[in-house]
């Protein structure tokens, strides 16, 4: 794909972050909403670092827009925020999947339709984008980019098949879009006086609802069990409502309420949130929340399906210890995403946990590594061994995933050179073998180290004593262990691990 060259050195490129906020009827027209969105976008920075943008409105069709390439902290200045006054708004952090990483594809997308302005922020990727593109173009609509998110924006301007009697029927338009393209998206859609939060019928991408605390309420920034069960209690007092890709975006003055359900269309107005409709997955298809959100993408403090991501990662580590035990002196992780799984492995195996590697946090995920040599140098820059825990020790090293193998290979060498007696690699997810067509850029078949037949030999050659992965069954078990879902039969997408695609394959395969 055209935009794969600039991707980060290690791991999977993330997805996108979406955020929306709307004040209640008492809300003043100032930049407070923009600042709440700004905080949310900063908290969602890990999901997309290529470009970002925000659109606000005072309640009419003249939307204020600011977008740019780069990080949230660089794109938004005091000056740009001062131009973003309003009583509601939406924002986005982008990792490109369907069109180049350029300013023209930065989100949210805004169009001016016959029925007023419309802004859309999208996380995901349309599996049938090529087909939908043809349909939209055939209706006489011109598109200005190759972005599937622009396509969604224009598809929402189409009059639904049953027509409209009294002006635009936005829920019907959204429903129509969901029928035309059931996978994959979490959307925030802003009109002049409302925001719609929409999750695709498979529930492939995350999206959650929160509230802006009433100024009279305390601002304790914690998630408690009863928040899930006492939703109505929480909805009673609020100064406004927020939606975000992950609950980690709700901080201090905003608070998590609940997840948007798969297929749910929620309408947020100054009077509060209201479920308009829930669209079911197509006949014979199962729900397919991305299992990699748990493994790697999400912040450990985010909540999905009623459970904290950290806790699921601990379960993965426990399960890994059950599946692949080995005698050793110390269990450690490749920081950061491997930390929780190492904790779980240590708990289950009763082998003490300790830090093996110090991470230089200044070598960020944004560094551009055009060649393999530079990628590997970056790993050496990123981690230093903690000799006290490494020298003369039999080590179990846990990481959450292996993608290109750029992290684990040099680390094995590093630990060996630093005097480790044994190095046992344990990976808290199964080997990644297949592409993702739902909003994640997975490296090409050849780049994916799990597809190199001799990878295990390579790892052993550079000094590992053993290398084992969590099984698919084990991962699913760890993820589903604590979920209590009475509504619908729960399931997760594991396509990049199994090749079993929840909604079939796209019309144009590219890998
Ligand atoms: O096999 P590779 O291509 O090297 O990719 C795998 C590594 O990339 C990710 O870490 P990353 O450094 O992106 O972020 P983290 O700090 O969240 O672990 C992941 O956690 C693995 O450590
Ligand atoms: N990673 C994403 O969710 C990307 C959204 C959208 N497909 C884009 O390329 O802008
Ligand atoms: S293929 Fe993998 S990364 Fe893509 S949605 Fe499914 S589980 Fe997530
Ligand atoms: Mg890592």
TrEMBL record:
Residue span, Glutamine amidotransferase type-2 domain: 16-271
The record's free-text note on cofactor binding: Binds 1 Mg(2+) ion per subunit.
Residues holding [4Fe-4S] cluster: 290, 436, 493, 496
Needed co-factor(s): Mg(2+); [4Fe-4S] cluster
Enzyme Commission code: 2.4.2.14
PROSITE patterns: GATASE_TYPE_2 (PS51278)
Positions contributing to Mg(2+) binding: 337, 399-400
Reactions catalysed: 5-phospho-beta-D-ribosylamine + L-glutamate + diphosphate = 5-phospho-alpha-D-ribose 1-diphosphate + L-glutamine + H2O
Record pathway: Purine metabolism; IMP biosynthesis via de novo pathway; N(1)-(5-phospho-D-ribosyl)glycinamide from 5-phospho-alpha-D-ribose 1-diphosphate: step 1/2
A single GO molecular function term of this UniProt record: amidophosphoribosyltransferase activity
Transferase recorded as keyword: yes
Active-site positions on this chain: 16 (nucleophile)
Record keywords, A-Z: Glutamine amidotransferase, Glycosyltransferase, Iron, Iron-sulfur, Magnesium, Metal-binding, Purine biosynthesis, Transferase
Any single GO BP term: purine nucleotide biosynthetic process
Pfam families listed in its UniProt record: GATase_6
InterPro entries reported for this sequence: GATase_2_dom, Ntn_hydrolases_N, PRTase-like, PRTase_dom, PurF, PurF_N
Family: In the C-terminal section; belongs to the purine/pyrimidine phosphoribosyltransferase family.
Protein name listed in UniProt: Amidophosphoribosyltransferase
Phylogenetic classification of the source organism: Eukaryota, Metazoa, Ecdysozoa, Arthropoda, Hexapoda
């Amino acid at each position: 794909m055209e935009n794969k060259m600039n991707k980060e050195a290690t791991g999977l490129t993330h997805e996108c972050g979406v955020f929306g906020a709307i004040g209640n009827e008492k809300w003043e027209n100032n930049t407070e909403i923009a600042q709440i969105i700004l905080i949310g976008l900063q908290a969602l920075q890990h999901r997309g670092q290529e470009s970002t943008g925000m659109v606000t409105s005072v309640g009419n069709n003249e939307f204020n827009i600011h977008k740019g390439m780069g990080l949230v902290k660089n794109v938004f200045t005091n000056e740009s925020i001062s131009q973003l006054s309003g009583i509601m708004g939406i924002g986005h952090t982008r990792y490109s999947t369907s069109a180049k990483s350029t300013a023209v594809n930065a989100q949210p997308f805004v169009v001016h339709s016959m029925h007023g302005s419309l802004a859309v922020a999208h996380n995901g990727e349309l599996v049938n984008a090529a087909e939908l593109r043809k349909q939209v173009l055939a209706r006489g609509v011109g598109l200005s980019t190759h972005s599937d998110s622009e396509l969604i924006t224009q598809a929402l301007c189409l009059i639904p098949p049953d027509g409209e009697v009294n002006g635009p029927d936005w829920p019907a338009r959204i429903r129509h879009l969901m029928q035309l393209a059931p996978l994959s998206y979490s959307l925030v859609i802003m009109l002049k006086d409302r925001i719609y939060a929409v999750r695709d019928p498979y529930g492939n991408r995350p999206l959650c609802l929160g509230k802006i605390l009433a100024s009279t309420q305390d601002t304790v920034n914690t998630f408690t069990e009863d928040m899930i069960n006492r939703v109505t209690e929480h909805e009673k007092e609020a100064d406004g409502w927020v939606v975000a890709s992950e609950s980690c975006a709700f901080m201090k003055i905003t608070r998590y309420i609940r997840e948007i359900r798969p297929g749910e269309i929620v309408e947020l107005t100054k009077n509060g949130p209201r479920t308009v409709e829930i669209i079911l997955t197509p006949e014979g298809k199962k729900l397919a929340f991305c299992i990699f959100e748990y493994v790697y993408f999400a912040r450990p403090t985010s909540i999905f399906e009623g459970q904290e991501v950290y806790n699921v990662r601990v379960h993965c580590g426990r399960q890994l210890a059950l599946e692949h035990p080995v005698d050793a002196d110390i269990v450690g992780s490749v920081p950061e995403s491997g930390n929780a799984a190492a904790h779980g492995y240590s708990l289950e195996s009763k082998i003490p946990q300790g830090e093996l590697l110090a991470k230089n946090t200044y070598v960020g995920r944004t560094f551009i590594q055009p060649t393999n040599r530079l990628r590997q140098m970056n790993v050496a820059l990123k981690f230093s061994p903690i000799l006290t825990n490494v020298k003369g020790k039999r080590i179990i090293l846990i990481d959450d995933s292996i993608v290109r193998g750029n992290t684990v290979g040099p680390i094995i060498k590093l630990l060996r050179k630093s005097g480790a007696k044994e190095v046992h690699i344990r990976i808290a997810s199964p080997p990644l073998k297949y592409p993702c067509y739902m909003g994640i850029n997975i490296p090409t078949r050849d780049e994916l180290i799990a597809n190199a037949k001799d990878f295990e030999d390579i790892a052993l050659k550079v000094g590992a004593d053993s290398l084992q992965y969590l099984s698919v069954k084990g991962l699913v078990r760890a993820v589903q262990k604590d979920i209590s879902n009475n509504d619908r039969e729960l399931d997760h997408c594991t396509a990049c691990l199994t090749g079993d695609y929840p909604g079939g394959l796209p019309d144009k395969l590219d890998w």
